[in-house]
TrEMBL record:
This is Molybdate transport system ATP-binding protein. One of its GO terms (molecular function) is ATP binding. Residues 188-414 form the ABC transporter domain. PANTHER family: SKFA PEPTIDE EXPORT ATP-BINDING PROTEIN SKFE (PTHR43158:SF2). Transmembrane segments: none annotated. PROSITE patterns: ABC_TRANSPORTER_2. Gene3D superfamilies: P-loop containing nucleotide triphosphate hydrolases (3.40.50.300). Pfam families: ABC_tran. It comes from Maribacter vaceletii. The keyword Nucleotide-binding applies. Keywords: ATP-binding, Nucleotide-binding.
Amino acid sequence: MKTNHHWGIYITNTSNKKQLIHEFLKNSSYQNIESYVGHKIALFSKITIAGLIEDEDRHDTKIITKNSNQSLKSMSSGEQKKALLKHLFSTDNKVIILDNVFDNLDIESQINIKKTLTEKADKISFIQLISRKEDTLPFLTHYAALENETLKTYSSLNTIPLFKTKNKITGSIPPPILTSNFIEKTLIKLKNVTVSFGDKTVLKNINWQIDRGSFWELIGANGSGKTTILSMLTGENPKGYGQDLYIFGKKKGSGESIWDIKKRIGYFTPSMTDKFKGNHTIENMLISGYNDSIGLYTKPTDVQKQRALEWLKLLQMEDLKDTLFKELSMGQKRVIMTTRAMVKHPELLILDEPTAGLDDFSASILVSLVNKMAQESQTTILFVSHRKESNLTPQYQYLLTPSTTGSVGTITKL
Ligand SMILES: Nc1ncnc2c1ncn2[C@@H]1O[C@H](COP(=O)(O)OP(=O)(O)OP(=O)(O)O)[C@@H](O)[C@H]1O
């Protein structure tokens, strides 16, 4: 093995990426990719972070953040990825698999990491697993594509035929079963909201009014407080209580239960997908979106079944109605989970980095679906992403800009 070989392996959401990673880590080789036998292979992936968090929890210790006063779990997703990369570079790894390296990282961090990887490329061999073509690192020397379980090598980037052209959803969004009776203009209001963790102020005097039916993109650097704001809205973070924070016309902490709030919100973030391990059909998964439950505990009504089928038709997935959710490709699972969050036409739909880990094809379907929901429903949408999804059409942007005294917000009409 020459240390200056760097593979770019293109993965679609139907590829068996898990197996590829597993084989590399176990046997230091996979199909017709060169062998790394005798070399320790490290994995830079969300999978590694999840494992470390589990270990930290189990042993009540810090593993890779020993020099920080924060546990890995309490860090933002971008901070976690940066901490892992720092850790991998501090140990003597000669081969590193980079799994969707740029997901969850803000633009500046993406540029910095690209630079660092390029600098390290003469000492470390990288195997980059790539879902979005724009992520391709500039120093790759070898290319391959994984289709299902078959790996094919290619002489250059341009000869890889794998990426299907972009897709768009056509047809109309099925109507809600129950309509909301909330008719006020303002759905959410934050007035001078400030949040600190210990002596660190994360958000400073946040003022944000979100009108019913509007479509927002929420952006900001890693650690700027995006998830903190979202978790205050959903009620998971008690820091919203006692502040001038109103949702659905009520002040946060004024007696409503978390479930009263959650019923009115549709929420999707990629990590939710792993929580659905049971034998649910796709149809039942969508229907469960009407009942805010994971499984189906009540018999679906005819109208719920009818609507679920309409949604599946819109996604051109009606043939898969009885397929088990767990048998879908990762891209299909994410699209179904996003749709599940939409079916009841929630008053608020929160999508937290929904395209992270998706290939270009699945991401284009998801973006098209979200645009359609924004155009054809009364649902208010908050879309959080670091990646500029070129076809997404939000009306407003809320930008969080960090400073030593906490992030401040800026609103732009797009
Ligand atoms: N429980 C906690 N204890 C200490 N610090 C915390 C805690 N929860 C969040 N933070 C810090 O608050 C800041 C904001 O985190 P948050 O997750 O809201 O950022 P974010 O904008 O969503 O970031 P990213 O883009 O990386 O996901 C981060 O610096 C994070 O480390």
